[in-house]
Amino acid sequence: MAESNSLLVIIRHAPYGSNLLREGVDTALVAAAFGQPVDLLFLGQGAMALLKEQGSGAPGQKASLPTIDMLEMYDIEHLWTTEESLAAIGVPTSMLRNDVQFLKAKAMPGFLQQYAQILNF
Amino acid sequence: MAESNSLLVIIRHAPYGSNLLREGVDTALVAAAFGQPVDLLFLGQGAMALLKEQGSGAPGQKASLPTIDMLEMYDIEHLWTTEESLAAIGVPTSMLRNDVQFLKAKAMPGFLQQYAQILNF
Amino acid sequence: MLHILTKALNSDAAHQMQQAVGEEDIVVLTEEGVQAALKTHWEGWQAYQSRIYLLAEDVAAWGLNTAVTANGLPTVDMNGFVTLTEHHPQIVTWY
Amino acid sequence: MLHILTKALNSDAAHQMQQAVGEEDIVVLTEEGVQAALKTHWEGWQAYQSRIYLLAEDVAAWGLNTAVTANGLPTVDMNGFVTLTEHHPQIVTWY
Amino acid sequence: MEYGLLVMGAPYTSPAPHSALRFAHTLLAQGHHLSGVFFYHEGVHNASSLMAPPQDELNLHDAWIELHRAHNIPLDVCIAAALRRGLASEAEALRHGKASFNIDAPFELTGLGQLLTLQQRCDRFITFA
Amino acid sequence: MEYGLLVMGAPYTSPAPHSALRFAHTLLAQGHHLSGVFFYHEGVHNASSLMAPPQDELNLHDAWIELHRAHNIPLDVCIAAALRRGLASEAEALRHGKASFNIDAPFELTGLGQLLTLQQRCDRFITFA
């Protein structure tokens, strides 16, 4: 991720609570389609989108799981979260998708600096 | 406040952060204009609206102080808050308007039950 | 009185609701509020025992069915939610 | 990196920002974030000393001029805010 | 029983309109009566006739109209909250010199008095926000 | 320097549009250049031509147009975020069978690619939300 146009999309809001998860993921997909290297970081409530069971979607609303699955089709392979985020929302790692990578909150400043661009959703 | 149509308007969001303070106060004013007995309770961030110094208004936005002052013109005399709310936002009572009345959080369930109707903003 | 919480437990809305709930009051957790299923140590589960419910449809939507079953938490479906409102003239939403 | 906080200190946004701020980073508190003027015990004041600012226009709007003066807190006006952004290619808003 | 609903969340931003719609259909199915729905704060956006979500998502504007058609439920929108947010009926658009409008029957622009009247008239009044 | 702004807050609900406008005028006054403003999420409501706030409040739609006229700043609106929220240009209204529209030049409906291009082209990119 040393490329000069690398993008980090940070997802900080829960699925269904607002449209921010969806709008953040859409931004990542378009960046990937443009050939821009892009990773995602899920913080706090945003980590709710990483639940394996996530799938039915709020009644009347579109499920978020297919949206997250799309990321892989666009070669967005790095879905990051922090152990502190999971602890804060009470989610054990056993409930998460298998493709999630972990970061310690302590390492966050250095992690963010690797990216040329950051968008916060 | 034993009247069968008494209304409590609860303000829980800060001035300028959203339009909820304004929309809550407008509701109280209309209720008063209709002759309905109405009190206001400011909780958490909502208590920011009770600052004496509150007045200039966010740049480009209308100030909230004149809106609060209107309450008195409509004979809405009871502006309540809780000591816990003030502690949470770090506001000493010396910074508040003089017409504010205090409630202990412990007394809140009984307080709410006095009202026939409650609207939460 | 019936209280509806639509936000997560660490929100201002949740803290304010906790101060407002009286001894005979009922609590229904909806929307983001169903995340409480992941916090079995939350004091509300103890304080409002047998008068607090998670809205079942929202639990399923948020991917929390397994957590609710594993933790044996009380749910109510939309039909049950309406029935609860029949019994409580005062209904307050914390959002 | 420059961090902009637009929400109150007890928000998720504030907690997440606190984890993200590096040792050379700058913090600007705007909109609801200026309520930090009332929390002189907030650890951010110590942790980001000489690299944290309250946006002056928002301080005045929120009725906090007296608190800022009494507590001797650092402010920057909109002109100064723009100048700060000149010195930091990466700018992240926490909301 | 007589129910009234207050909707304060915007479609596609807040789940509140979805919850309100499900609650409305459920209470009607149980034989209760719904006196009206009042849209306030960001909830006024539910009334926009220009809403055009992707085809695989529920069109909330249309869902409210369907509720109205099936059960004759009044759909009242706070006029002050609506106008500042860019929602206007034909009459209001004309009054404000606007060339078009986006609020149509059965949605009706009305004052806050309507909210208070609805609350007083109903046995149960529930906020979705 | 070359600046770009992303606005995600709705007028009259979030203070973000006000902050963004003040920031824009200040950076221009300092001699910087503003490449464009992109409206996303609830920020798309800034583009509504039907907005009619009370006379003693700033009309944000008009304030953005004034910024455009004075400095020729492009005002881009995310088309997907706009359509689901009830904002449409004449062309999009036609395409979706709507009788009226509420987005007009200088506001332009565009894709998310425009957001990414703007961010890459600018020396500084700032989110107001």
TrEMBL record, chains A, B:
EC number: 2.8.1.-
Ranges annotated as spanning the membrane: none
Taxonomy, superkingdom: Bacteria
Keyword Transferase: yes
Catalytic EC class: transferase
Entry keyword set: Transferase
GO molecular function, one term: transferase activity
InterPro entries recorded: DsrEFH-like, Sulphur_relay_DsrE/F-like, Sulphur_relay_TusC/DsrF
Keyword Cell wall biogenesis/degradation on entry: no
PANTHER family: PROTEIN TUSC
Similarity remark: Belongs to the DsrF/TusC family.
Protein name in the entry: Sulfurtransferase complex subunit TusC
Gene symbol of the encoding locus: tusC
From TrEMBL, chains C, D:
GO cellular component, one term: sulfurtransferase complex
Pfam family, one: DsrH
Gene Ontology BP annotations: tRNA wobble position uridine thiolation
Domain of life of the organism encoding this protein: Bacteria
NCBIfam families (alphabetical): sulf_tusB_dsrH
PANTHER family cross-referenced by the UniProt entry: PROTEIN TUSB
Protein name, as recorded: tRNA 5-methylaminomethyl-2-thiouridine synthase TusB
Organism taxonomic ancestry: Bacteria, Pseudomonadati, Pseudomonadota, Gammaproteobacteria, Oceanospirillales
